[in-house]
Specification:
The protein has 337 residues and is of the alpha/beta class. The protein is built from 15 helices and eight strands.
Amino acid sequence: MFSGVLVGAFVISSLPFTAHFEPFATGVGINCAPQFLTDIKKAGPFLFEAGNCQISPWWMLMTLWGFFWFNFVFFICKLYPTLKKSLQAADYFMLMLFAYGTLLIAIPEFAYAKDIYPSHFRANTMFKLGYQAFIMMSIASAYTFVLFKARLKRERTLLSIFYMVLAVPLFFLVAIYPSFAINSYYGNKPETSLDGAQWLAMTFPENAEIVNYFNTSVKGQPTILEAQGDSYTDFNVISAYTGLPTVAGWWVHEWLWRGSSDVVGALIPDIQSMYESSDKARVQELLQKYGVTYVVIGPHEREKYKGLQESKFGALGQVVFTTSSGASKVYKITLDR
């Protein structure tokens, strides 16, 4: 009864999404397909692409996943004497986490979801499956550690001692990773904070003021116009930190989710025209086409659109916010819709 309710609730709640969702993956590629399959190229959803052959070296797999497999092996050794007896439900569950996590790691060695990336064709498949495996096997490894620690207190068996001697240094190597990873990306920053917008106030104070204006003074979900940028740049921070829709975001990320660059690629020239064109009628037409309510004129817009024609926005709307330096503004478009 409970399972039926759970499944029914899942179907009903996810239906609005699944009914309109079109996956960006165009098929399932077979890694290192032999020539007789690459000659066929495709069979149903399976793709056989010549030249797509990437096998993870054993040492890389052991570096990434060795700690978890170490716990998996010792967990099985711990349970082996009681396999013929009744195991606890938690033991079955942890075995499932270890086994399923290992399966997720193995899948990209044999197959991958075909997306837009030609060179790193396994990247998204490995990322999506790998981080799930990491979470599951981390939980199971913690359970294994507690299991052996509790047993060591009761009786000092050779297996328990051997496990603890190896587990502590291995865990240390895993635990120090965040220190190196975070510093390699952020460097030695003088200040650290849990505030994810702090960098914006330090690096782009004008944009931080605009974000604060939208978050405190604007209700609903009006569409804003801001400079469109590429992946992993500082562009599109206004929409990112306000949650407001914009005409176009990072091109490649939008391209990835749609399976084609045409959708966003067609919007980029229109965004440029809205900022740089001096043809008021044309700009008005585009603003209405995309339902733009607010236009942002900030440091990124001035940087990207060298031919920026700001004066026309004064004729199409009015300034509703100006930053403390006076260098950046937000226009509210007052066209009849």
